[in-house]
Specification:
Elements (H helix, E strand, L loop, with lengths): L1 E5 L4 H12 L3 E6 L5 H13 L4 E5 L4 H8 L5 E5 L11 E2 L10 H10 L7 H15 L19 E3 L5 E3 L7 H6 L6 H11 L19 E4 L6 H12 L9 E5 L8 H5 L1 E2 L10 E2 L1 H4 L4 E5 L9 H10 L1 E2 L7 E2 L3 E6 L3 H6 L5 H4 L4 E4 L8 H12 L7 E4 L2 E4 L3 E2 L1 H9 L6 H18 L4 E2 L20 E3 L8 E4 L3 H11 L3 E3 L5 E5 L2 E5 L13
Parallel strand pairs: 1-2, 2-3, 3-4, 8-15, 8-16, 9-12, 12-15, 19-20, 21-23, 22-25
Antiparallel strand pairs: 5-19, 6-7, 10-11, 13-14, 17-18, 23-24, 24-25
Helix pairs in contact: 1-2, 3-4, 4-8, 14-15, 14-16
């Protein structure tokens, strides 16, 4: 097989495109240069159409590379050939390592993509493979309503104050729910029927839509799981993600009484004192449903989500059910395997997610990656904007001193990760400003001496062969209580093979033993 390395537009680029179109075997290495992005993108598009892999080499991965190259095309294999030149031995000039947009909205959109680096290549490859499997099936059809309620609601009211939709072209979703009554039921059935493309509303098998491809994102708190979910939304809807609804549903806030009301919604008059309700999963019927804090799903709500994950049918109370052309992404910082073994979570819920990826914590990314993220946090346009002062344009904080960089790189972020790093950096920016200094120094850093663990974190669990048998033993009622005790005493949470948990504090052992299933009564035949 011929090998061809391309670093600029010219004869080699034309030859590569022609050979790929002709089906000739060819190995292509593309050394990416932003100046030639348009010409290089043409090659990648041709390679995608012909299913030919192209190795794309980046000296440094930037946020735009993720959306414009790595996730836009199916067959490029990204490779980082040069590591970031970041050390804690000299001043870090803000913006020299990972240039970020100055506009607050653009910065926020690029913030999740900026976590891409040479240390994250394996994660990015897994994420890209998962998203392309999700994108491989039929795309959601044209939306029959506006899920964002971005236009005027055309509703007219009869003498008895019953609402009727006036504009049947592209109504607001809120108006569709508000107008669901006996008088409008026939029209609304046709509207929901259009949403189902003529398939019976109780069908659990929509033609061309693979309901089985769902993504579960795991990882410690603060690693950016929500950012990954929003990035997935932009990748899954590359052309109109801003029109599609991204439903962020916090599963930990649900309970058995309000779960159906919150996630599906209800027609007018179904609940006393409530006119109507558009549920989160109803809005996400043609977008992305993000199930955040999935591992904290309270008891009693699992069957409701399990049924939805099985057939993707939205079931508003008092209304006809309809199929949801939605991508489903869930995220949790919990160790779901441990919770399943302890009887705290349903295994069948986890099995509904065919694709699972873990976001690596900071401790596995290396010092250079941590310092690059410090550079990113220092460019936050709200905390450290680019301003004009005395005829000069620049930021108030321009550098970070080596001793401060060393402290930031060596801190154990435990269960705070990128979120904690950003908070420490932003606080240091404000302190440096108050000192009228353009340089962040150790005096500006407020770094906790002990690692911060969230009470619901599972990462401080240590699995042991047997628990110590102490004279002083205290029984704890729940797994949450003993995890909270481990945080308060700053002791590890020990887990035995039988899923008994213990915290040893001084000469006292605190134990949580999960309830044992009762044996079935013996029957005489």
């Amino acid at each position: 097989m011929d090998a061809l390395t391309i670093d600029a537009p010219g004869k080699d680029l034309s030859v590569a495109i022609d050979q790929i179109n002709n089906g000739d075997p060819l190995e292509v290495r593309l050394r990416w240069n932003d100046e030639h992005a348009e010409q290089f993108s043409e090659l990648l598009k041709v390679a995608d159409e012909n299913r030919v892999s192209v190795t794309v080499e980046f000296d440094t991965l930037r946020p735009s590379h993720l959306s414009d190259v790595i996730f836009r095309y199916r067959y490029p294999r990204p490779a980082v050939t040069a590591k970031r030149n970041v050390t804690d031995e000299r001043n870090l000039a803000i913006g020299s390592t990972l240039p970020m947009p100055a506009d607050p909205l653009d910065y926020e959109n690029a913030r999740g993509m900026s976590l891409v680096s040479e240390a994250m290549q394996e994660f990015i490859q897994e994420l890209r493979d998962a998203l392309w499997v999700m994108r491989a099936h039929k795309q959601a059809p044209r939306m029959p309503w506006d899920p964002l309620d971005g236009q005027r609601s055309d509703i007219r009211y009869a003498k008895d104050n019953s609402p009727t939709l006036q504009d049947w072209g592209f109504p607001n979703l809120s108006a569709v729910f508000e107008c669901y009554n006996e008088r409008n039921r026939g029209h609304l059935r046709r509207l929901f029927g259009h949403a189902n493309d003529g398939v019976r509303p109780n069908s659990a098998r929509e033609p061309g839509w693979d309901w089985n491809i769902k993504l579960l994102v795991t990882g410690d708190s603060g690693t950016g799981k929500s950012l990954v979910a929003r990035l997935a939304h932009r990748v899954l809807y590359p052309d109109d993600h801003h029109k599609r609804y991204f439903a962020h549903l916090n599963c930990s806030t649900l309970d058995a009484q309000n779960a159906e009301f919150e996630i599906f919604g209800a027609a007018p008059g179904t609940y006393t004192g409530v006119d109507h309700r558009v549920g989160a999963l109803a809005r996400a019927a043609y977008g992305t449903a993000f199930l955040d804090e999935f591992g904290d799903l309270p008891p009693g709500t699992g069957p409701i989500l399990l049924t939805f994950l099985d057939d993707l049918l939205v079931r508003p109370r008092g209304m006809m059910q309809f199929f949801s052309y939605s991508y489903v992404v869930a995220a949790t910082n919990r160790d779901l395997s441990a919770r399943i073994r302890a009887g705290e979570f349903r295994n069948d819920l986890v099995q509904r997610f065919s694709r699972r990826i873990e976001v690596p914590p900071l401790r596995r990314r290396g010092r250079a990656e941590i310092l690059a993220l410090v550079d990113m946090a220092c460019q936050n346009p709200i905390e450290n904007p680019i301003e004009t002062f005395r005829g000069k344009e620049g930021r108030a904080i321009t550098e970070v001193a080596p001793p401060a960089l060393s402290m930031l790189a060596s801190h154990d972020y435990a269960d705070g990760n990128v979120r904690e790093l950003e908070a420490i950096t932003h606080q240091a920016i404000q302190r440096a400003k108050r000192r009228n200094s353009s340089l962040i120094e150790p005096i500006d850093l407020d770094i906790p001496k002990h690692p911060n663990y969230r009470p619901d974190a599972d990462q401080n669990v240590i699995r042991v062969g047997a628990l110590p048998d102490l004279d002083q033993q205290v029984e704890v009622e729940s797994l949450q209580d003993i995890a909270h005790l481990a945080q308060l005493t700053r002791q590890p949470l020990l887990q035995a093979p039988d899923n008994t948990y213990a915290v040893i504090h001084g000469s006292t052992g605190y134990y949580y033993r999960p309830p044992r299933p009762r044996p079935l009564p013996f029957r005489h035949e």
